[in-house]
Write a structure and sequence with these properties.
The chain is mainly β. It is built from no helices and nine strands.
Length: 144
């Protein structure tokens, strides 16, 4: 899907004492990664991702912006996720996601705006694991 996106470097930011490169992205054409309702199936995404200015690819922050078409309303959804180091797993994990939905009525009732904001906080991370035990036996041979 990469050819359907454009990317642009927007500078740097410091997160937890580390330098991150801010990369802006814009989805250019359908079919889109995020799908909408049947009446408006293609939702073009824009946003930014902050990637560590090194070789490990650590993500420090993400922002996703979606303009959601609807019948009689325009809604913009903005989701921002913050990542922080989690020493027990030796990696960065999402610790907080903020979402903001701003809807504006269009047409004869335009000018009316509704805003809904949410916050999700994540904790108690643990590593998933699976253990298996295998035992092989030769099939019994039976005379034919």
């Amino acid at each position: 899907v990469q050819p359907r996106f454009s990317f642009e470097s927007k500078g740097t930011a410091t997160i937890e004492g580390r330098t991150f490169v801010e990369l802006a992205f814009r989805e250019l054409k359908a079919p889109t990664v995020i799908r909408g309702a049947d009446a408006h199936p293609d939702v073009l995404a824009t946003g930014r991702v902050w990637v560590h200015d090194g070789t490990d690819g650590t993500v420090g922050r993400t922002e996703l912006v979606l303009d959601l078409p609807g019948d009689g309303a325009k809604t913009r959804a903005t989701l921002t996720t913050e990542y922080r180091p989690y020493r027990a797993l030796a990696l960065w994990v999402p610790v907080e996601m903020r979402d903001r939905l701003q809807s504006e009525l269009v047409g004869s009732r335009s000018g009316s705006v509704e805003v809904v904001e949410g916050l999700a906080a994540y904790s108690a991370f643990r590593q998933a694991g699976v253990s298996t035990q295998e035992q092989f036996r030769l099939p019994e041979t039976r005379p034919r």
